[in-house]
Design brief:
Radius of gyration: 24 Å
Structural class: alpha/beta
Protein name: Acetolactate synthase
Enzyme class: transferase
Cofactor: thiamine diphosphate
Pfam family, one: TPP_enzyme_M
Strand content: 15-25%
Domain Thiamine pyrophosphate enzyme TPP-binding: 380-527
Length: 542
């Protein structure tokens, strides 16, 4: 480095200097020769490198860091199959609005078309699922390209970015201008649209708030609480919105959502799309207020009564400051609390069930006893993880990770790596279906080798639960929906350097979980669950 304004070095050193300026603090990767200079720069400067056994886990690990820490995170993938293996992770980050930067190696430009190893143009593949995608043409362009990619990734609505570094660009020495100080624009909402939303909420007789992941991503948790408390509106959450209000808060609800949505006259959806998880925004006669962090997130398939777009902290603070006439919602909230308490009582019975085989609800009943308030829980699965959404109630914001609306299996081990790096002293628990285990369980070796202990609880029912039962209902038979019953996933983790055990009786769950959280290594609790006990919900195929 020659001066604060100029950088010099090979392409990896130039890229790393720009990455540090934007707050990137670690690299997730699977080794590949096309990106050696990035490793060289990291190794010589003490920049942490974490490696995995499949490239999609590298991207998922970066996404977990980006989500939990609300900052950009980095995955480095070698050319060709390295990049294509990471595309599912990129796509999940795109759907989740996660500011992940993937830097890909690329076959040399000077002999492009001659058939170099792993020669393929990545940009047409990644462009549909990134906010910014570019190939860097020279070394001196690298810092500026990194800055542009990360600025795009951090600008609402956030999302992933991709940069290609051809072989001769990343290996060659150059000098370049240092990137400017990061300047991410704050989007000001339309005050008239915010006022319209505030008036609708305040004048409603039976309003409901549903808060999603962007409330956490936009650092708007405190503003959400202030708005809910000032306007006295019950709050339900999904995604990383979970924990925004602690379960004991008078306005926090989870179990009575159907009652609330059926009875509400105004439904306020904040920081989450009007997708299949929310009936595509069709709530019968209720008016919908859709509050989003950017105009691009406004629903195109419905017309809300109000749709403020902009920085969520600004919008929610403006709602809290509303000075117009407000309806008294006490009776509405009291009625929902009765429904909530009744549902909790039913859940308590299910979570204590003494059955053989074990019901999934009992697994979560035992987990609730051992999970700390600040534990990070990670869902990677379909049927088994659906129960997690029902029975676990995160107590703090930023403690819940799931695949999001893209629904990609295989996030578990990568998310676990990112969570453990983010919170070295907290419990990290992966909730995994036995189907999902087939996607990423090999990365238990990556966790063990790098000293990253996590607990993995596998709900092992020997089937693809969300497919087998619906297919039987539709056709009277099922195909391609069975797995090996009672497979020893714990033995897999043992072989990879961790530990684990299989649990077949409900009474053994508690002691097994206690051993898992005390183990200090990746530990898999393989719970044999009832294949007939499928999560009761309709298909999400529509």
């Amino acid at each position: 480095m020659t001066s604060p304004e100029r950088l010099e070095g090979h392409g990896g050193e130039l890229a790393l200097a720009a990455l540090r300026a934007y707050g990137v603090a670690e690299m997730f990767t699977l080794s590949g020769g096309h990106v050696f200079p990035l490793y060289d720069a990291a190794h010589k400067s003490g920049f942490p490198i974490f490696d995995v056994r499949h490239e999609q886990s590298a991207v998922f690990a970066a996404e977990a860091v980006a989500k939990l820490q609300r900052r950009p995170a980095l995955a480095v993938l070698t050319a060709g199959p390295g990049v294509t293996n990471g595309i599912s992770g990129l796509t999940s980050a795109y759907f989740n609005g996660s500011p992940v930067l993937v830097i890909g190696g690329r076959a040399p430009a000077f002999r492009w078309g001659a058939g170099s190893l792993q020669e393929i143009d990545h940009l047409p593949l990644v462009a549909p699922v990134t906010k910014y995608a570019a190939t860097v043409g020279s070394g001196e362009e690298i810092p500026g390209a990194v800055a542009a990619a990360l600025t795009a990734a951090l600008t609402a609505h956030r999302g992933p970015a991709f940069l290609d570094l051809p072989l001769e660009v990343i290996f060659s020495a150059a000098d370049a201008d240092a990137p400017a100080t990061p300047d991410v624009p704050v989007m000001e909402p339309d005050p008239d649209e915010v006022a319209r939303a505030a008036q609708l909420i305040a004048s409603a007789e039976r309003p409901v708030i549903i808060a999603g992941s962007d409330v956490y991503a936009g650092d708007a948790v405190a503003a959400l609480r202030e708005a809910a408390e000032t306007l006295h509106v019950p709050v339900f959450t999904n995604g990383m919105g979970r924990g925004a209000l602690p379960p004991e808060h008078q306005l926090a609800f989870a179990k009575s959502r159907r009652t609330a949505l059926k009875g509400a006259d105004v439904i306020v959806v904040i920081g989450t799309p009007l997708d299949f998880r929310l009936s595509f925004g069709d709530f019968g006669g209720a008016q919908v207020v859709h509050i989003v962090d950017a105009p691009t997130q406004r629903a195109a398939h419905v017309t809300p009564a109000a749709a403020p777009a902009g920085d969520l902290r600004l919008i929610l603070s403006a709602l809290a400051d509303y000075e117009g006439v407000r309806e008294d919602h006490a009776e509405w909230i009291a009625g929902l609390r009765v429904a909530e308490d009744a549902a909790k009582a039913r859940d308590a019975e299910e979570m204590a069930a003494e059955t053989d085989p074990i019901r999934p609800a009992r697994v979560y009943g035992e987990l609730r006893k051992v999970l700390a308030r600040d534990a990070v829980t990670i869902g990677d699965g379909g049927d088994f993880v659906s129960y997690a959404g029902k029975y676990l109630e995160p107590a703090e914001p930023g403690t819940w990770l799931d695949p999001g609306p893209y629904g990609c299996l295989g996030t578990g081990m990568g998310y676990a790596m990112g969570a453990r790096i983010t919170y070295p002293g907290r419990q990290v628990c992966v909730l995994m279906g036995d189907g999902a285990a087939g996607f990423s369980l090999m990365d238990a070796e990556s966790l063990a080798r790098q000293g990253l202990p996590v607990v993995v609880v596998v709900g092992n029912n020997g089937i693809w639960g969300l497919e087998k039962h619906p297919m039987r209902a539709m056709y009277g038979y099922d195909v391609a929906a069975d797995l090996q019953p009672e497979l020893r996933y714990d033995d897999v983790v043992k072989a990879l350097g961790g530990a684990g055990e299989t649990v077949a009786k409900a009474s053994d769950l508690g002691p097994a979980l206690a051993r898992a959280f005390d183990a200090g290594v990746p530990y898999l609790v393989n719970v044999l669950t009832d294949p007939a006990d499928a999560y009761p919900r309709s298909s999400n195929l529509a």
